[in-house]
Specification:
By secondary structure, the protein is α+β, with helices and mostly antiparallel strands. The protein folds into three domains: 70 residues, Alpha-Beta Plaits (2-Layer Sandwich); 336 residues, 3-Layer(aba) Sandwich (Rossmann fold), CATH 3.40.50.200; 130 residues, Jelly Rolls (Sandwich), CATH 2.60.120. Helices cover 21% and strands 27% of the residues. Strands 6, 7, 8, 9, 11, 12, 23, 24 and 25 form a nine-stranded mixed beta sheet that branches. It has a six-stranded antiparallel beta sheet with strand order 13-21-15-19-18-17, covered by helices on one side.
Amino acid sequence: MDTPFISIDELTKFELDISSGTQQVEIIVKYNGNIRKVAAELNGEAEILNSNYAILTVQLDQISELYKFKEIEYIELPKKLPFFLSTNLSLACITQVQRPTSFGLSGKDVVVGIVDSGIDYTHPDFINDDGTSRILFLWDQTIAGIPPAGFKDGTEFTNRQLNTALASGQPYTIVPSRDTIGHGTAVAGIAAGNGRASPARSNRGAAFEASIIAVKLGKSDVEGFTRTTDVMRAIKYISDRSEELNMPCSINLSYGTNNGSHDGTSLFETFIDSMSEKWKTVISAATGNEGSSGHHFFSRIKENEILNIDFVTDGSVNKIYLTLWKNFVDNITFELVSPSGKSTGIIRPVETITRITLDGVQVSVLYGQPTHYRTNQEVYFLLSRKDKAISSGVWRLIARGEKIVDGAFDIWLPTIEDVANTTSFLLPNVELTMTLPSTAKNVISVGGYEAVTGISSDFSGRGSFRRGYFIKPDIVAPAVNIVTAKSGGGYDSFTGTSMAAPFVTGSAALMMQWGIVQGNDPFLYGQRVKSFLCKGAERKFPIKYPNPIWGWGTLSLCNTMNILTDYN
């Protein structure tokens, strides 16, 4: 098999700042046949996620060897993912569905899966009235020990171990897993907190009697970040555990990346799509907080036209990527100019890899190629500096149209969690500001709005009407000043689409309790849940739905449940 991307090991070096070929790296692979044999021949390890997807751990200098195996269909590098932070149950019409005089739903006998920064298992919101834990399993990927079967890292803690820890008076000596960031605890509180720490349980979440399976993501060298491979492991783990328990599961993903084409075709996204079709599963993902960040640029270049694309950085970050996606049929050259006026010179597509230093900044440029999954082409720019921050000021990317048929292209900078909004394009485009994996086709993509005033949140990631992209988000939920469980005890207020997604995650759990557990609709999972949530959404404004800001409208679970009743 010929090597279609001779530069993938080079790109790995770009991403990980690796110069040696002896470091172990993780690779996402789509495969057929015996992938363990491939790993063994390379003295590596294979973690099988399902019959088509696996994670291989190999030496950096062995990556190009993967192309020689007929079992390998495609490979992809993991990306870093930051967690998103930025009365609402009633406004989302969830409280009404919880009432005994209505549907009386609580999430009982449904699993809520939290894939995040961990969970404060000592918080009263995740403890039953008898003092036992509501958490069935907690897999902490950051603690060395005994991982779940089929995985190579972390430690799995069972409900029995959690109960022993809670009863001991010194829980962290038995189960040392902590949520030091607090993000996962907040998300879990909205989706499934029981409100035991609040007066009259006023701060309880949506599926307040659901069982919880939590995964604390880890292994990144940057606090608050994880990798796509860890997320893939977490989804498989929760799905497998739920199937073993014969319980439907609703999984929450509240983080994302701009590093990708945003069209749902990466292995990361297609794997999540495949897992949403496995078992009785619903996966909800936040659209991110990139709506007003200035991190997306779009234009359409003509033949012989020159476009100047300016972006600014404030001198506070030491790594910036630009991921540019264009039609492969178009020939476009690029040139990068530093704030001091130094230039890379014109970079042409035939120069697969270009490296040059500008103002002390290492600039690496990679022209990718189309694959059997996508027809578009990536041009990847990485600016990095190890000794200090990248030069502040205005950087200019010059695009020159040579042979143009289509001419459209998109560029994304890293998310605000990576580089804040002090690194941005001077002329940004607000469309297609959703982050991966909310761009996956089968997930429920959840944007955010300010529920009390009923206005959209400018930070909420947006979709696009443009040809070639499916309209997202699917739905929006409350995302501003959400009071929820705080790691360490008590409650706090949080803002961001991270807090919108668990409203939908909890709502899906309530729906599956009614449909699957109570026997009213045994097939109420996957795309069927999404369809009814979209059908029941409130559409309050005289505008076209769906649209890139509101999707199909705002979450209204009581509308959805009433429609479900009619259909059943």
